[in-house]
Amino acid sequence: MTMYDPTVDQRVDKALANDFLRLATRRATDRLRNNRVKAAEELGDWQKWREAGETIRTHVVANLDFYLKQLITQIEKQGGHVHLAKTPAEAVTFVKNIVREHKAKNVIKSKSMISEEIHLNHALEDEGSTVIETDLGEYIIQIAGEPPSHIIVPAMHKTRQQVADLFEPIAGHPLTSDTPTLTRFVRNKMRESFLQGEIGITGCNFAVADTGSIVMVTNEGNGRMVSTLPRVQITLMGMERLVPSFRELDVMLNLLARSATGQKFSSYTTILTPPKQASDPDGPEEFHLVILDHNRSEILGDKTFRPALNCIRCGACFNVCPVYRQIGGHAYGSVYAGPIGAVITPLLENDWYKWGHLPFFSSLCGACSEACPVRLPLHDLLVKLRARKVVGGHTPKIEHQIFKTYRFFFTHEKTLRKALRLGSKLQWPLVRNGRISVGIPPLSNWTNSRTLPKVSPKSFMQMWSELNRN
Amino acid sequence: MTNTNEFISLLASKLGRPTPTQAPEPVAINVPQYRSSTRKDRASLFLDNWHALGGKGMIVKSPEETMQCLKEWFGDQQATWPNKQQAIVAWDMLPTVAEFAFAALEWPLVRYSQEAQSSPDRYSLAAQAELGVTGADWGIALSGTLVVNSSPQRGRAVSLLPPLHLAFIEASKLRDNLFDVLEELTSLGMPPSAIEMISGPSRTSDIEMDLSIGVHGPIEVYVIVIDD
Ligand code: SF4
To answer: For chain B, which residues make up each domain, given as ranges?
Structure first.
């Protein structure tokens, strides 16, 4: 049995062959990274802020049961409804039931990674509702039928011409591909949807335990529309996305905005405590909070990986990762890409066949850990995940065999000497231009994508003993 | 369907201890905060940051200056707005200086929460308006941010649906940083249903990382700081 999904290599090859994707990804991530560095410097003493961020997140995760209970109690007291979902399927069912109960045809959505994680849109469309992604980037990839390629800039991989081509059939007339034209088209188009939306679905950057509030950060204002205009609001939240009180928000919001886009704050940071008060002229009358576990409780119980729950989804680690910068988000195949995606996807999905490649999408350079505003030791977690994969027996037989052979030779000096001498004599059919470039299986797994130095006629051990003799 | 107790006790077992009955001791937060030396510095930093975000801003000392400012910013456009009676939508009550200035200019204000009976009617009112006018509860100098609480007299859509948003804020409401605002918010007790923090116009960089202003929310934002 193969121990890993063959589509992984196909995805990577596809990404490597796509020059625009690679250029766009590098350009965009460069920009985001430089903005972050500048915004961090501006604040002053960035390391202190990171430490505070780490302390707050670690404290919340270590007391997650207490704060979640407090949040749930508070929201119910205020007249909101809380739905606790163990699995993505359960979360989808909760949302479906609410939509069905209201016979809602028009559902408008602002950005939510949880909705991607539970694959919500298709499920709702199967119900006969129209779901509209209102974040410009999300809207583009919704029309294209693709997953996001970056956690902050979901349509990073699309050219303006591709965007114009996607919009044209909807506009019903030709569109030029300049940004103002495309943005204006979306503004006009989306206005109708906002005003007709019966149910608004939002994400949640942080929930505040002691006030029962939801904090949402957007730049476009679509998050405000979705949480102000429809009569019913559904918010999707990952179980760990909490702060104890308003007090901690200062640190978390500074870290998030500066790390995500290099802004001091995003254009709109909204602290919602829904439902609306009876005499408020706008805001949702009905509020549902869906809280998703999806194996987060397993991560919580696993001391090694518990810090992974500290992530605030800012995307800073994506922008500095040499692997992400070469292949973009789609090659990962997972909802969450980049270094944090490589850490949490195998844990959330608990499927090594499908996701066991992810911990290897890293050069272990540690740039991610250095960029992370809450000081997640990402590269360290990636090494530990690799170890777990091997110990769990999720690696291919051939890999086992190779390492066994390696161990044998390197613990038997004489045999190694003999083998090397033999190798230098017998390698000639495989050598081209001084490198081993033609391989037969299993060597071809390596030589298909790169070359090996040929075995030198004189081994290092031989040279060493000659040196010593002289 | 999982009930709350089951859900929470699973987490407690994963954490290897019973759920605390008392709120955990809050963590000490030790970060350096920006402090301005004078009120004037604070106001000018606020405006500098607001300008950097692409907003327009001015400090006014009198109702006359306010009128002057409004004429300068909106006078020409106002003359061309097709439906002048409905062009400016506002909160039920604005700071006195603002009320005076609009009355003196004879620019009619539509009061968002009084004009229409149902929410959809109110939304279309705001969506068709040219300019939304609000006050603000705090301003944050360090980031050029307006902090606006919702209330029955203050529509949330007023600062959202019209293409132009104008806010009035008293200089005494400016704070150095978000931390100070959050402290004051906390001391209010139960928060309002929405606290909107607004830093500049609506923006996006979703198409080839090219910055574009006004995708969904206001395209232009204005602030008048009242020197009180
Ligand atoms: S791991 Fe750190 S850097 Fe990466 S998304 Fe999460 S918080 Fe941001």
So the answer is: 34-226
